[in-house]
Amino acid sequence: xxxxxxxxxxxxxxxxxxxxxxxxxxxxxxxxxxxxxxxxxxxxxxxxxxxxxxxxxxxxxxxxxxxxxxxxxxxxxxxxxxxxxxxxxxxxxxxxxxxxxxxxxxxxxxxxxxxxxxxxxxxxxxxxxxxxxxxxxxxxxxxxxxxxxxxxxxxxxxxxxxxxxxxxxxxxxxxxxxxxxxxxxxxxxxxxxxxxxxxxxxxxxxxxxxxxxxxxxxxxxxxxxxxxxxxxxxxxxxxxxxxxxxxxxxxxxxxxxxxxxxxxxxxxxxxxxxxxxxxxxxxxxxxxxxxxxxxxxxxxxxxxxxxxxxxxxxxxxxxxxxxxxxxxxxxxxxxxxxxxxxxxxxxxxxxxxxxxxxxxxxxxxxxxxxxxxxxxxx
Length: 378
Ligand SMILES: Nc1ncnc2c1ncn2[C@@H]1O[C@H](COP(=O)(O)OP(=O)(O)O)[C@@H](O)[C@H]1O
Ligand code: SF4
Ligand SMILES: [Mg+2]
Fold this sequence. Notes:
The protein is α/β, with parallel strands linked by helices. It has 11 helices and 12 strands. The protein has helices spanning 2-22, 30-49, 108-115, 138-142, 165-175, 184-194, 211-223, 241-258, 269-275, 293-298, 303-309; strands at residues 59-72, 78-92, 97-101, 123-128, 131-132, 148-151, 229-233, 261-265, 278-283, 286-292, 360-364, 367-370. Strands 6-7-8-3-9-10-12-11 form an 8-stranded mixed β-sheet, sandwiched between helices. A 4-stranded antiparallel β-sheet has the order 2-1-4-5. Helix 8 (241-258) links the parallel strand 7 (229-233) and strand 8. Helix 5 packs across helix 6 and helix 6 packs across helix 7 (211-223). The N and C termini lie far apart (60 Å). The site of magnesium ion has 3 residues, from helix 3. Iron/sulfur cluster binds at residues 302-303, 340, 342-343, 346, 348-350, 353, 358, 371-373.
């Protein structure tokens, strides 16, 4: 009996402490708050629809969403939805490289694919060269397929094994009438040379090559149709470290020669720092920080960016980096935490973060961040 009393008293103390800690959020309806925030975002997206696209941007993404329905009722109503990309907005200027970083599963690939319409976006606008292609049909997209290309992570599975390199590269050139039929072979050989592939490779098969050479073939295939915009989805992650720099340098060289624009997806921050003009940091389907690469590395604002960047080795031995280790695992994107999605791992978490989602705001010219630490007016 005495023990039971003791237990009850302890429970009461715990409850009091929890309530005290919650302060103004005691009894707060997180779910209702979340619905209200969703409603506001929806209204903002509707308002933004009326705005013309930025004439200077080659790509402008507004409130992009890609949700996967995981479970449905018998009547077909969604029971559980995974918000792989949830209300992401940004712009890329011609000739720029935008690096997208974030841990595995945060939605980088899904976003790249939704922009290219390899996934149909759930909502949002995707302006490519001033035209919203989000609602384009596959037939309408066909005309744009040459202009927008993708290089995949795995050069082993992305090449057809029974075709020669020559056939792999010539086929899209023929299909899209890039040059007259009599000039196809010479054209392909020129692209191969640009990508560091010897001319006798033309008759060879993909399995005869190493990962690095295969990725060169994939890059040549993307370039063969003369694109202006290329999504590079972890193009060096599957390669030997010794080969990675060669492929990155090839991508850089080609970009300068052809004035290409890249959306460069990677979880390797050293690579992204080297190649990107701007960086977007994603966490559980949301963009949490976006800005100029140098500025962001000098002064990362979001606690997640700070932790990610602290893991990049510092080439200056005099400057000792303090690596920030994040606690806990990344939560399931099918059931993200309430409030700020990062609050369960954030070293700066405050009570408000557990209940209210921070707004994604431009806090200085071209620098966006979603964190309650920066919620003062501009
Ligand atoms: N076709 C799909 N159906 C259901 N869930 C998916 C599908 N594709 C990706 N996802 C989920 O979406 C989330 C984001 O995946 P992805 O875009 O591949 O992340 P990243 O490229 O950052 O590693 C993950 O949780 C993944 O499991
Ligand atoms: S809003 Fe709060 S939990 Fe989220 S990143 Fe900022 S300080 Fe951390
Ligand atoms: Mg991926």
